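Ticket #4471: structure export looks truncated?
Reporter: QA, pipeline team
Priority: medium

Steps to reproduce: submit the single chain below to the structure queue and open the exported record.
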Amino acid sequence: MLAPPNQASEMVVDHPGESEMHKAEPLNLYEEVMLLALRDEEGTIATGFPEHLVAGAILAEFLLEGRISLDDKRKKLVDIKNRRKTGNPVMDECLEKMKTAKRRASIQTWINRLAGIKQLRHKVARQLCDRKILRASEDKILFIFKRRIYPEINSVPERQIIDRLKEAIFGDQRELDPRTVVLVSLANGSDLLRQTFGRKEIKSRKKRIELITSGDLAGKATTEVIAACQTALIIAAVIPTIVTTTTSS
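Actual output as written to the record:
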């Protein structure tokens, strides 16, 4: 999360929690990027089109777990290897959408399809509310339009994420955990690293970040996952440009 540019007025919205066991589970990649993308106190998204970032993180999670694989052809079509439910509502909804598709699709297509799931960002945020990390609230824009916001109420999980990223980027380890490598790739491509650590600091570690995001520090298996992440980020970067061009023409 990022420091808010200004303070938002809030109305608390009650949301039913889940079990204590659910709250104790490790965060998924898509939950980690959502925490980084939200402003701490304001509870609003600080990066454009987070749905594609979340979708890329979900597919990366599936790849890391061996639930899906990509064929060797140019289109990189997705094959489902494990159809069993994960027990995670967001991931199971995405997996079900992939399982019930009439034909195989490319990783680019699936990023767009999963990003289009209704209320995706809010479903992820509500999971973080169930974990007692965020709080669901509302504020008003121009005193008229309501919007849902998710201020942070437990900063420990995000601090742990940032510490992990900091150790990877500013350290000199020759071997990194694959999940951390993928997280660095997602955060770097979506500009979250710069927003989290500062432009100068990240620029000074450019070569190190390139080394990490090339997959050299986590093995060949992770390289495919990183490529999928980069596809997600390219799509997320292109969409705002298309929208801006369309609305201004």
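Status: closed, not a bug. The export was complete when the record was re-opened. Leaving a note from the reviewer for reference: The first helix runs from residue 20 to 24.
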